[in-house]
DNA sequence: ACCTGAACACCGTTCAAGT
DNA sequence: ACCTGAACACCGTTCAAGT
């Protein structure tokens, strides 16, 4: 009886797990454990163990632990940029779409967000790819604001200053939200975002200035 | 010759360094090393060594490393609250005084700020004193806003929502500033703060709405 | 009451060596 | 080229013991 000694490959031969794509597997597993244990719960040893690989196998692909984290941040900025782009298309129906998308990303991916803004971008400023990915996301906002200016819907202030302003708002809301400094859990973050962007548009000064006697 | 064998005490006898006030000494030394090495550079062993004390002496006064950090955060919130109160007195000459004071505090004490908002407040939510100190600082802002509302200078929106909005803005600016995500170093943060609060007051919508043809 | 010393269970990282 | 195993220099924390 000539039984097939090797197990039938489903699609493409999925054997050789380790040799397959360790860098991607490491990245994926890192995100997974950060998602569950937080950034400071991430341990190279546990990642390696989860992948069934030696503790030092990682060093062939990432020079450092921080290099691995930089890769996580890079992927985070890339995803954020894409979601901002998608939200930009809905800007006509919902003027707050981009801001809401930003905060939603942070709330949905606190682990990504913490790594992205956990003080890595500046400490490892050498990582040019990370730098580029980060400013790429920022540019989406800048361009959207310029378009609004050209449509005559926005003040003609310096676009990048305007963009930093808006970014600071959503960034602040996002951080307060994922750090649990807003009372309610998730829904409040979106309400606050919509409130904030609405107020930013028309101001918070009292509408009817009390005339003097 | 009867020379004084013991050194003359300057004010009160400052001998017995270790026994004196270890808790305060630990706190002070922790802030000092965080200031220089960053939060993740803080090591209990180095703190103890700098104080000439055993590595485990700390555990008599703080249950944890995180308890020591919580004490740092508590002191930070207390200082911030006091500086906000001081700024509130200048609100008439400078409407942005409180916001500027907030961002200045963060930029001047990034180590404090990082510990305060480094995800400690929520993880160790058990620390009631920290919780109280944190919301104390928030209340200063709320009360200032309510006063502005009563003076008829501010929209009659829900004060706490208004406060969360303003907080998010200065928090966002502060974080971007101390994380090096603003191009210039320190001066830009204040400029951005003034710009932001000015725009928040009157809105960013185009001032002269182009009428339709 | 306050502090010490040895010990434990962890880390990230290096490096010679295997295939 | 890719991975392993032992080793190194670190951590926070526990605990019996000293004064």
Describe this structure in words.
2 copies of one chain form a homodimer. With 213 residues, chain A is mainly α. Chain A is 63% helix and 0% strand. The first copy, chain A, has 10 helices and no strands. The longest helix of chain A is centred in the middle third of the chain and has 25 residues. The first copy, chain A, binds a DNA duplex (19 and 19 nucleotides) through loops.
How are the secondary structure elements laid out?
2 copies of one chain form a homodimer.
Chain A: H1 17-20, H2 22-37, H3 44-50, H4 65-89, H5 97-108, H6 110-116, H7 120-123, H8 128-150, H9 159-178, H10 187-202
Helix pairs in contact in A: 2-3, 2-4, 4-5, 4-6, 4-8, 5-6, 5-9, 5-10, 8-9, 9-10
The first copy, chain A, binds a DNA duplex (19 and 19 nucleotides) through residues 18-19, 22, 43-45, 53-57, 59-61, 64-65.
- What integer is the average pLDDT of chain A? 85
Globular, elongated, flat, extended or rod-shaped: what is the shape of chain A?
Answer: elongated
Protein chains sharing the most extensive interface: A-B, 45 and 46 residues
Low-confidence stretches of chain A: 1-17
Task: Name the assembly state.
Answer: homodimer
User: How much of the residues of chain A is beta strand, in percent?
Assistant: under 5%
State the helicity of chain A in percent bands.
55-70%
**Would you list the SSEs of chain A in sequence order as H and E?**
HHHHHHHHHH
Structural class of the secondary elements of chain A?
mainly alpha
**Biggest sheet record of chain A:** none
Radius of gyration of chain A: 23 Å
Distance between the termini of chain A: 107 Å
The number of strands of chain A is 0
How many distinct helices of chain A? 10
């Amino acid at each position: 009886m000539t039984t097939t000694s090797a197990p039938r490959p489903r699609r493409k031969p999925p054997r050789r797990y380790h040799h397959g794509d360790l860098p991607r597997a490491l990245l994926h597993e890192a995100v997974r454990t950060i998602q569950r244990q937080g950034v400071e719960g991430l341990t190279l040893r546990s990642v390696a163990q989860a992948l069934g690989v030696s503790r030092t196998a990682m060093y062939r692909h990432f020079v450092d632990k921080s290099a691995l984290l930089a890769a996580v941040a890079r992927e985070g900025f890339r995803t954020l940029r894409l979601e901002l782009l998608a939200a930009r298309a809905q800007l006509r129906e919902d003027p707050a779409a981009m801001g809401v998308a930003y905060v939603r990303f942070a709330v949905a991916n606190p682990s990504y967000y913490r790594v992205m803004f956990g003080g890595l971008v500046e400490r490892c400023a050498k990582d040019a790819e990370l730098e580029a990915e980060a400013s790429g996301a920022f540019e989406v906002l800048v361009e959207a604001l310029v378009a609004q200016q050209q449509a005559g819907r926005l003040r003609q202030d310096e676009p990048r200053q305007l963009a930093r302003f808006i970014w600071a708002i959503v960034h602040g809301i996002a951080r307060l939200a994922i750090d649990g400094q807003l009372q309610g859990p998730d829904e409040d973050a979106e309400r606050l975002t919509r409130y904030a962007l609405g107020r930013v548009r028309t101001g918070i000064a009292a509408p009817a200035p009390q005339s003097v006697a």
